[in-house]
Task: structure prediction
Amino acid sequence: MAATIVTRKTDWTGIIFAAVLTLVIVFPLVVVGTWAFTNVWRYPSVIPQEFGLRFWNQTLARADVWSSISMSLTLAFTVTALSAAICLPAAYAFARMDFPGRNLLFFSFLAGHAFPKFGLLVAIAGIFLQLNLIGTFWGVVLIQLVGTLLFMIWIPVAAFQAVDRRMEEAARDVGASPFRVFWSITLPQAGPTIAAAILLSFVGTFYETEGAWLIGAPQVRTLPVLMISFINNQPVIQYGAVLSVLLWVPSFIALLFARKVVNSGSFARGFGG
Amino acid sequence: MSVLKIKDVSKIFPNGTTAVDSFSLDVADGELVCLLGPSGSGKSTLLRMVGGFETPTSGLMTIDGEDITRVPPEKRPTGMVFQSHALWTHMNVFKNLAFGLKLRKVPADEIKRRVEGVLELVGLGGYGTRSVTQLSGGQQQRVALARSLVLEPKILLLDEPFASLDQHLRERLREEVRDIQQRLKITTLFVTHGQDEALSMADRIVVMRDGKTEQIDRPDVVYREPQTPFVAGFIGTMNLIEGVVSNGVFSKAGYATPLPVSDGPVTLAVRPESLDLSAVSQGSQGKVHRVTDYGTHGMVDLELLDGTRVKAMVPHPDLFKPGQGVTLAPKAIAAYRDGRVIHRTGVVATTAHPALVDA
Result:
């Protein structure tokens, strides 16, 4: 009952935050979403003159759109799987073992994010050119792997560190080998947080544009790269808008998945929260 | 049916700390031995070495004659119960108990039978499908015990298993654990810093300090005949009075008592229950500071003439008031010099040893 007696004060700070967030995040999304389902929208009308799916039909009829969707999905799956295979054991080593240069190596994963990314990419592209990796699928996989390292090392390290050592020892005690302990105890315990890292990695790779464009174009064309070329080369806004909405789909599915698998604390715990 | 032998085991950590220093102990078949000591005395490190979680720097450990010194924990016939329970929260109670059996490729129907049997034993019959996070602290500790027992280890290791429980539950669980241990006749090594736990459960107590053994004896002997002033002060309440002996008389600030040892500094040890007080108006040896009535008995805190605090247990606390003068009459005393007992009188007759020890 006490709660109802307290007079509710208007939370102006909250309202202002909500308004600003709406303006900068939701409003552009609504505009792009509206454009995607618009057949005719001419100045100065505030709402479109004609809604419709004309541009969806036209966009989805193009072979390059479908091939780029499949390319993007293949890339995102490959990069995430490789990243998990490489980074999770490494993260476990960082979390549980002490070796020379551990801290330096650990912080070196920040380096990829500490400098202007495009400069780094151009330098890598120079090396890839000599290795004949430019314009190849595996060239793009490599460059996108670099982008996932930070998430896939730092978050799982925190997750593994949060696993109670005694639980692992108790498993050894009842007869589990070190590998079995990792598989049956450590991984399930760290699971939700690691799922969060994998999700971030997948979505991040799916949207990654600069690396894919610089290393992959024109042979390897991902959905974001195709969208950029549409926006640059097409006077019709709707093509870009339809592709943007298409791009939202995986992150929307990922979010739904996240709500099921990842409890709210996992992301925070991953960052040491 | 197993015997644990620890011979000259030492553990020096990489940072140079000596946690355990040339420790030796034989634990007989079916015996429950308590490692008792303050934090940092090396008792947990010792237990972890027996469990295989730490490797001794030197020394030898055997179970039934088999050298286990460098055997990894998963290959040892030991079962450890951790202070924090360390239950696997992503498995239910049944799966926690079945995990070790599955690793041993025990058939499913036998796993079911054994898990249910052990759950009955610890009083948790029918709890198999419960999530371990739904259980109370005491139930979690029972599951942790069951998880070790279900594998029928040769040696059971308990690392302060009741430390996280409240007093009431702790007392009940230690009786249960003692009952189970005696019923299964399982050789057990138990680490605790609680003297009550050690005194009430152990067949023998090992008092440890700085990685070394201070005394290994039956609980009643450790309590009544502590071999060092450290043991005397650590087990139970003990008045330790530093004084000087001259011509066979111990004296300290107006208090004097005959003590047949050679001249020199001596630490006199008297239990509160062995110290009789008489209220006097003249010629007092001390002054009452505080009287506490515990219902069954009273505890008088008194000060000798130089301010040294002494405790005495009295049957009638209402006879004493703060500020009152008293004289002291110890019924049983021990005297220590250079860390060893040099004299003891009036030991209560229940011990098998002679009442007088004179070194």
About this structure: The longest strand of chain B covers residues 18-27.
